[in-house]
């Protein structure tokens, strides 16, 4: 993988992250793990014609917004709460002329968040549905759940049991949606 990758995603990441920093290392390692898992998932649904090149690029870029958040454990000292990194990433990629990739950023939190849940939970993000719709948006969101970003470990693998336990704790049907994805993508 990656040998045919256009330099575009990396160029954009380099605009905002210092390649010598740990945050950059975490972002890129996480992005690559998510890209591989998302492409593996997409291979299970060839009838949906997933765009593999796009999945790889969007996976690398999906967390680009984290530097604008106040997340010291990832070396990020922005002013926004972490939950904002999805829509902030969308804004960055729209500015970069990548509106399709931008939607992957906005729609990858949890298994997607509805406008209703945003209002109910008082999340400090725009009140609109942030739910992965296209197969490409869905595989990146799905794959992302398997990998956490970690200052010490750089990347941490999450087992299916851990993922489901966390999603069940939300009590909003997220775990069921994840299980549906498992049937489709494994
Ligand atoms: Fe992620």
Q: How are the SSEs ordered, and which strands pair?
A:
Layout lengths: L7 H9 L5 H22 L8 H10 L8 E2 L4 E2 L7 H11 L3 H8 L8 H7 L13 H10 L2 E4 L3 E4 L2 H11 L3 H12 L1
Antiparallel strand pairs: 1-2, 3-4
Helix pairs in contact: 1-3, 2-3, 2-7, 3-5, 3-7, 4-5, 8-9
The site of fe (ii) ion has 5 residues, from helix 2.
Describe this structure in words.
With 186 residues, the protein is mainly alpha-helical. The chain has one domain (8-158). The protein has 9 helices and 4 strands, in the order αααββααααββαα. It has helices spanning 8-16, 22-43, 52-61, 85-95, 99-106, 115-121, 135-144, 160-170, 174-185, and strands spanning 70-71, 76-77, 147-150, 154-157. The strands form 2 sheets. A two-stranded antiparallel sheet has the order 1-2. The protein has a two-stranded antiparallel ribbon with strand order 3-4. β1 (70-71) and β2 form a beta hairpin. α1 (8-16) packs parallel to α3 (52-61), α2 (22-43) runs antiparallel to α3 (52-61) and α2 packs across α7. The two termini are 20 Å apart. The mean pLDDT is 95. Fe (ii) ion binds next to α2.
Query: What Rg is obtained from the alpha carbons, in whole angstroms?
Result: 15 Å
- Largest beta-sheet characterization: 2 strands, antiparallel
What share of residues are in beta strands?
5-15%
Small molecules held by this entry? fe (ii) ion
The count of helical stretches stands at 9
Give the helix/strand class. mainly alpha
Instruction: Name the strands of the widest sheet in spatial order.
Output: 1-2
What does this entry show, briefly?
The chain has 186 residues and is mostly helical. Helices cover 54% and strands 6% of the residues. The protein is globular.
């Amino acid at each position: 993988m990656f040998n045919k990758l256009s330099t575009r995603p990396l160029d954009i990441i380099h605009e905002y992250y210092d390649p010598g920093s740990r945050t950059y290392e975490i972002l890129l390692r996480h992005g690559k793990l998510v890209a591989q898992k998302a492409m593996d998932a997409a291979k299970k649904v060839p009838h949906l014609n997933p765009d593999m090149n796009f999945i790889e690029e969007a996976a690398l870029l999906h967390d680009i917004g984290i530097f604008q958040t106040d997340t010291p454990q990832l070396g990020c000292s922005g002013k926004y709460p972490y939950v904002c990194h999805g829509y902030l990433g969308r804004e960055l990629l729209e500015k970069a002329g990548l509106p399709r990739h931008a939607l992957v950023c906005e729609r990858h939190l949890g298994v997607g968040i509805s406008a209703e849940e945003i209002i109910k939970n008082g999340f400090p993000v725009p009140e609109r549905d942030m739910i992965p719709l296209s197969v490409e948006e869905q595989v990146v969101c799905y794959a992302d759940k398997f990998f956490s970003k970690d200052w010490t470990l750089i990347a941490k693998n999450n087992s299916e049991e851990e993922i489901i336990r966390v999603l069940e704790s939300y009590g909003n049907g997220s775990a069921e949606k994840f299980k549906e994805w498992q049937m489709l993508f494994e």
